[in-house]
């Protein structure tokens, strides 16, 4: 799985979604442990040694330092037992739009691209994604999300980026691409509606 995370990291970096050392990626392994990117690794230059394992509660199983946001991955895996991959990116639309949205959610409605999310089969739907304030204390973020993760496929951290999760790494990649597109559409719609 380390090779697949390396591949995804390089791909997301090349698309501008994980510049420099930003972002973090993980996969839940068959034994329940978590393979995750280490802290400070450049996503465009990832190597297998930049991936480490955590137990299901987030404790390191190797003598490496995990991403500072490992607790957020653990929280998602616990809330979504079928999730096998989590991707966190810092796309420009994800960061920019979060700066202007008031409140604690982003509502996406009527877009054909919403069908990229599991269980959505028509554009005639409304998806509400949690939007939480950024913090260097992961307990602040996990607390803000504790009751809001069960029925959503993604969330946004204000001034920071967004998280998606899925039952496979390929599906998670599709969600990053789809959500980035939707956020770009929201920005453009708001711009031309003014």
What does this structure look like?
The protein is an alpha+beta fold and 194 residues long. The chain has a single domain (2-193), classed as 3-Layer(aba) Sandwich (L-fuculose-1-phosphate Aldolase). The protein is built from five helices and eight strands, in the order αβββαβαββαββα. It has helices at 2-14, 70-79, 92-100, 138-145, 169-193, and strands at residues 24-28, 34-37, 51-54, 85-89, 105-109, 126-132, 154-157, 161-166. Strands 3-2-1-4-8-7-6-5 form an eight-stranded mixed sheet, sandwiched between helices. β1 and β2 (34-37) form a beta hairpin. α3 crosses α5 (169-193). The longest helix is centred in the C-terminal third of the chain and has 25 residues, at 169-193. It is globular. The protein starts with a helix and ends with a helix.
What does this entry show, briefly?
The chain is α+β, with helices and mostly antiparallel strands and 194 residues long.
Identify the CATH homologous superfamily: Class II aldolase/adducin N-terminal domain
CATH architecture verdict: 3-Layer(aba) Sandwich
Q: By helix and strand content, what is the structural category?
A: alpha+beta
Task: Bin the helical content.
Answer: 25-40%
**Major beta-sheet overview:** 8 strands, mixed
Percentage of β-strand residues: 15-25%
Mean pLDDT: 94
| N-to-C CA distance | 46 Å
Q: Find the CATH topology.
A: L-fuculose-1-phosphate Aldolase
Q: What would you call the shape?
A: globular
SSE series: HEEEHEHEEHEEH
The overall number of domains is 1
Q: Major sheet: order of its strands?
A: 3-2-1-4-8-7-6-5
CATH class annotation: Alpha Beta
| CA radius of gyration | 16 Å
Number of strands: 8
Low-confidence region ranges = none
**Total number of helical segments?**
5
């Amino acid at each position: 799985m380390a090779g697949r995370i390396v591949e995804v990291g390089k791909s997301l970096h090349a698309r501008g979604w994980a510049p420099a050392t930003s972002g973090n990626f993980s996969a839940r392994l068959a034994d329940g442990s978590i393979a995750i990117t280490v802290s400070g690794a450049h996503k465009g230059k990832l190597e297998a040694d930049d991936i480490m394992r955590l137990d299901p509660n987030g404790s390191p199983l190797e003598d490496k330092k995990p991403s500072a946001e490992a607790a957020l991955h653990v929280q998602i895996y616990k809330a979504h037992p079928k999730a096998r991959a989590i991707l966190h990116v810092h796309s420009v639309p994800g960061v920019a739009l979060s700066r202007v949205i008031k409140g604690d959610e982003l509502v996406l409605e009527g877009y054909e691209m919403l069908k990229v999310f599991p269980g959505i089969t028509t554009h005639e739907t409304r998806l509400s994604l949690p939007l939480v304030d950024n913090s260097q204390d992961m307990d602040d973020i996990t607390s803000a999300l504790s009751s809001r993760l069960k029925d959503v496929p993604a969330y946004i951290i204000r001034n920071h980026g967004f998280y998606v999760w899925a039952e496979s790494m390929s599906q998670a990649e599709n969600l990053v691409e789809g959500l980035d597109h939707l956020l770009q559409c929201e920005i453009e719609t708001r711009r031309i509606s003014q």
